[in-house]
Each structure stands twice: as C-alpha cells, then as structure tokens.
Amino acid sequence: MQEHTNPPVFFISGAVILAFLIWGALFTGGLATVAGNALTWITTYFGWFYIITATFFLVFVLWLMFSRFGNIRLGPDSSRPEFGTTAWFAMLFTAGMGIGLVFYGVSEPAGYNAGGGPNPDEVTPNTPESASEAMNFTLFHWGVHPWAIYIVLGLALGYFCFRKGLPMRPASALYPLIGNRIYGWLGNLVDILAVFGTLFGLATSLGLGSRQVNAGLSELFGLPNVWWVQALIVAAITSVAVLSVMLGIDKGIRRLSVINLWLAVTLMVAVFLFGPRLYILTGMADFAGYYIQHLPQTSLHVADPATDPNGFEFQQAWTLFYWGWWIAWSPFVGMFIARISYGRTIRQFITGTLFAPVGASIVWFSVFGGAALYYDNVRDTGIADVSSDLAMYELLGNLPMPDILAGLLSVLTIVVVVLFFATSSDSGSLVIDMLTNGGDPHPIKLQRFFWAVTEGLVTIVLIAAGAGMAAGDTDPLNALRSASLITGLPFAVVLIIICFGILKALRTEDVRVQVPGTTPPSRGGESKVHVAPPGDVDRSKAQSGSTSASGTVDNSGPSDSSDSGA
After folding, report:
1. HSE (CB half, 13 Å, CA atoms) of 441?
2. d(CA 67, CA 522)
C-alpha cells in the first residue's frame, strides 16, 4: 500500500468524498443550504480578495515570462519537450476548459446581451453596445485570468518535480517554505483539498454536461430527457475515459485530445461558413480590442452591494463564481499541464499556456457567440431565451443550411461534447491518481482504473438522487458543486504562498549561463532550496529528513510508462 499510495491522502479523501456523496444524495436540501450560505458569505465578504488575487496571479506570471528566469527549463538544462506543439496545445485546451466553451459558447454572451449583464439599467439589450459589453465580460471570464491561475500551480509543479526531483503533488510547491513538512499533515491537507475540489468538480460538470448531450439527443432523435438516459451517457463517457487513461498519456489522452480538437475546429469552421461571416470577422477584432482596452478596469473592479446592487449581483453570480471555480480546479489543470510540459522553458510554458488557449477562446466565442448575437440582435431569433443545454442546438437550427446538414452538425456537437468530457475525465483521473499515490507521475493501471470509474459512479449516483425531485427542490449536482467551490478560498491562499515559494527557489538558480546540454555553475555554496527525491523513489527517506541537500534529479525525462504497474 505504501509503495503505490499515500495512505493519509487516499483514505481521508475517500472518506470525505463518501460522506459528502451521502450528504448530497440523501440530504440534498441540507447540503445545499450550508454550501450555498457559505458560498454567498465568501463571495460577499471575500469578493475583493478573489478579484485582487486573480489579477495578482496574472501580473506575476507575466513578470516571470519576461524576467531573467524565463530560460530556465522544467527539467534538467539538457531536457527537451516530451510532446510536440500541436499535441501539447490540444491537451492544454481540452483539459483546461474545452467543455465549458461548448456549454457556454453561445448561451453566456447571448444571455448578457439580452439584459443579463452587469448594467441592465444603463445598456439597452440587443444593441451593438450590449453586444460589446456581453462579449467583453465573456472573454474576461474565459481569458487570461483563469489561465494565469492554472499557470501558477502548473509552473511550480513542473519546476519542483522535473528540475528538483520532488513528487508531483501540490504540497511540493511549498517545499522552499516548509521543507520536509510537505510529507506531513500540512502537505497532506493541501493534497486532500485538491482531491476534493477535483473529483466533485469533475463529477458535477460531467453530470451537467450529460444533460446537454441528453437535450441534443432528445431534440434530434426524440429520446426521453430523463435521468436514466443521462446515467447511460455518463457511463459511455466514463468508458471512453477509462480506455484513454489506461492507455496512458501518449497512446490515450494525447490522441483523444488531438482528435477532439480537430472535430471542434470542424464544427467552428462550419458555423463560420454558414453563419454571418462578415459580422464574425469584424466582431473578432472589435470584441478582442474592447476586451484588451477594458482589461485593467474589469480586472480590478469590485462592485459594492450598497452602491451598485446590479453590478454586485452580476459579479457574485458570474465573475466570483468563475474565479472560485478556476481556483478550485487549479490542482487538476495545474498538475496536468505540468505533467505534459517537461522540457519546456518557463518562458515557453507561460507563453504557450497563457496566450494560445486564450487566442483560441477569443476565436471560438467570436464565432459561436458572435453568430448568436447577430441572430438575436438583427433577426430577433430569441436564442437567449432557451436554456444553456439547448442554446448551441438553437444556434445551429437558425443557420441558413439544409435541415440534414443542421442535423449532422448537431450530431457533431454531441460527439464534441462527449469527447471534451472524456478528455477532462481521463486527465482528471490521472491527476487524482497522482494526488493519492504521493506524487508519482506514472500511476499504476489499477489505480487509474479505480479513480476513472469512481468519477463516473459518483456522477451517476448524483443524477439518480435528483430523479425524484419535486419542482423547486435543490439539484444534488448543484449542491455538491457549491460545496466544491468553497475549497477555492483556502486554495487561493495556498497559491499566493506558492508564488513566494517559486520566487525563492528561482533566486537560487544561476541564470548567467544557459548553454543547452550543460548545467550552469553554482553561485558558490550550497543551494538554499534543499530538494527531496521523487515521490516514487525513497519516499520514506524523504519523510524522515535524511535527504541530501543536493537532491536527486532524473535526467531521463518522464517517459509515458503506461505499461508499468499492475
């Protein structure tokens, strides 16, 4: 057990997950009340903290990108990237927020445009002004800020794991500040928070996404929109995810991500070709410019409930919800992007992770959201009036194309949604494996299988628990999502501490000489940051404090040992 798991994290996480699952399934109203009140209290009294913290992370990673530390590699100085640029980007995009772009790509800008924005009394709905405002806040929520949050943890883990030989676990990022105590209760507490936020975040997203797939199948083929169909959808998605995670990163996750990326691009190109092309092209430049122009203002604006009740209500329901969501998901996405970024320099890592997905998101929202804005503002189609589950299908139905082609695109949309969820599930399973095994980036197959199946079973239980709800009852999925979001506040504090840990460690690096294939000379004297062996090698020695000051670095790189273990 000690060899393949970190028992405190594994068993405590399992117990907490089971307790919350029972609470959410059997006593949904109680959990919803407690979690909802806690979340409301956090966003009311710590909203300013979320806003400032997210902006601080953005400034911090931009500074690192342009600093003298930019040429330091996530690995030995002789290391080179494990994955090609296209595959790397595909995995970044699909794991980070791909499914959210499909779910909210149409409904979010359309909803803001129809009067759901922060200034409904000042901006007339369904006008060019409301369209610009709608897209500005949509891009704000899905732009550079969430990726900056992911980068902080991803960069720290990539640096400390691949360059300093520490385990691939969030607690390792605290090593410069607390030393070998990362192997004690404090480090385990950080990892348990990460497991809780990751598993329930994935499970609730998987459940809500199954409803979008079910809505599409009901619209196209007349299948009943009921809980057991959604449970079958979750089972199908979980099966794909299990196969992918069992094959490993290179044979499974990478290939599935690349396939999914190209299918999503195909769908986007089709909407562009049949949609309002000129409006999309002009809007792409206009929306991006408006977003960049207003970024400093939106990044630091905190609405006060007494003087700006509409703005506060919007910020609480959307911006602070998103910021808490991205922070709660940062262990999942951060660990995964660290795992696939071996050999890249800090500058390459930040540039690719910050700007490539954001650029893709701007194009995506300009096409799908822009088309929805055009049809609502010019043709008065009422896309904003349908639910988020059906918004994408409603847009496709309004495109000037033959019905059979619209049907094919709707089927493609369902396939893309399913694969996006599968790629999120398989990468999430890999992350939870690493969290519960002490940081080994190559979990054994049995453990990969266990966590991938667990995600699906948790989701199915929550869907079944909500089947008998009466009108007005609380949805178990939403109740547990609120509970998982509460982890965002303590983890925001952890991320701030991690920033100082990164800075302390980087200052021990000699950046005067960076010749490929060589190790820069030391600055004279022992490094101030003592590193421990990797999480899958000599963990007992590291926990006892017997690690040498120089640490251990694996110069061979992280090959995808998908065939290792059971």
Report:
1. 26
2. 19
What is the structure's pLDDT at 100? 79
Indicate yes or no: pTM above 0.85. Answer: no
For 443-493, the pLDDT digits (tens) are 777 777 888 888 888 888 878 777 655 555 566 777 767 777 788 888 899
User: CA 68 to CA 204: how far, in whole Å?
Assistant: 41
Chain-centroid distance, C-alpha 335:
10
pLDDT in tens, 244-294: 777 766 666 777 778 888 898 999 999 999 999 999 999 999 999 999 999
Q: 527: exposed, middle or buried (C-beta count within 10 Å: 0-12, 13-18, 19+)?
A: middle
- Sign of the dihedral through C-alpha 212, 213, 218, 224: negative
Q: What is the reported pLDDT for 544?
A: 43
In angstroms, the CA 560 to CA 114 distance is 48
Cα–Cα dist 242/469, whole Å: 30
φ, ψ (nearest 5 deg) of residue 106: -105, -45
Q: How many CB atoms are closer than 10 A to CB 553?
A: 17
Distance CA 342, CA 427 (A): 16
73 bridge partner residues: 345
* Contact present, 265 and 94 (Cβ < 8 Å): no
Give CA–CA dist 429/247, Å, rounded.
13
Q: How many CB atoms lie within 10 A of CB 127?
A: 12
- Residue 434 and residue 169 in contact, taking contact as beta carbons nearer than 8 Å: yes
DSSP reduced 3-state for 280: helix
Tell me the DSSP string of 13-41.
HHHHHHHHHHHHHH-HHHHHHHHHHHHHH
